[in-house]
Design brief:
Number of helices: 8
Bound molecules: 2-acetamido-2-deoxy-beta-D-glucopyranose
CATH topology of one domain: Methane Monooxygenase Hydroxylase, Chain G, domain 1
Structural class: mainly alpha
Largest sheet: none
Protein name: Pectinesterase inhibitor domain-containing protein
GO molecular function, one term: enzyme inhibitor activity
Radius of gyration: 28 Å
Keywords: Disulfide bond, Signal
Strand content: under 5%
Helix content: over 70%
Number of strands: 0
InterPro entries: Invertase/methylesterase_inhib (IPR035513), Pectinesterase_inhib_dom (IPR006501)
Shape: rod-shaped
Order of helices and strands: HHHHHHHH
CATH architecture of one domain: Up-down Bundle
GO cellular component, one term: plant-type cell wall
């Protein structure tokens, strides 16, 4: 049986790898911050950073902590910027969808059911999924409006289907 031995060796390798990041100055710093700063979080986040792990005094740990925070904030800023761009495109999509639905209703009220049907399927029903796909494939890797996109998709398809039902009864 080779497998259990391999697993044990792997576990030892992982434990050794973790121990490399731990340092007594990080431990002492985090111990001094108890209980306001959770000890495990403090040790974990600092030990994962090579600069913090190599620090030899509290000043070095503090500088590394600021740097870790800077890197994280810059990363979040990038996500927000992508999201703003992607949501701006979705805003344009939905602006057109709402305009189109107003036109659908105008056609509908005037009895131009076929025009209403063409307009809703050409300019409204695809919009929610276009927005959803844009966010899914986008750089932000976040979709804060996936639920709304799903609800709009279902509603637009339902409205379109009912208009088509009406047309088939009239023709
Ligand atoms: C630091 O503390 C962790 C547990 O929080 C421990 O596993 C590790 O051995 C400690 N390292 C040093 C260098 O004291
Ligand atoms: C800050 O973090 C980045 C990325 O981990 C690293 O390349 C850089 O050397 C760090 N600078 C300092 C001053 O810790
Ligand atoms: C309605 O559709 C017909 C045929 O496609 C077209 O000729 C007409 O201009 C449309 N009317 C409106 C108000 O869009
Ligand atoms: C879809 O919208 C565009 C732009 O408003 C318009 O020109 C076009 O006639 C619409 N399509 C249908 C089928 O009504």
């Amino acid at each position: 049986m080779v497998q259990p031995i391999a697993i044990i060796l792997l576990a030892v390798a992982i434990a050794t790898g973790l121990a490399v990041g731990s340092s007594s100055i990080i431990n002492a710093t985090c111990a001094a911050l108890k209980p306001l700063q959770p000890y495990d979080y403090c040790v974990g986040v600092l030990s994962a950073d090579p600069v913090a792990a190599a620090a030899t005094d509290v000043r070095g740990v503090a500088a590394a902590a600021v740097n870790i925070t800077t890197v994280k904030a810059a990363s979040t800023l990038r996500v927000i910027s992508y999201l703003v761009d992607e949501l701006t495109t979705c805003r344009r999509y939905y602006t057109n969808m709402v305009k189109s639905l107003v036109d659908v209703l105008i056609d509908f009220d005037a009895g131009r059911f076929k025009n209403a049907s063409l307009e809703i399927s050409a300019n409204a029903t695809g919009v929610p999924m276009d927005c959803d796909i844009l966010l899914f494939e986008g750089n932000a890797h976040k979709d804060p409006i996936t639920q709304e996109n799903g609800e709009n998709d279902l509603l637009a398809r339902l409205a379109s289907a009912i208009i088509d039902l009406l047309i088939s009864k009239h023709v």
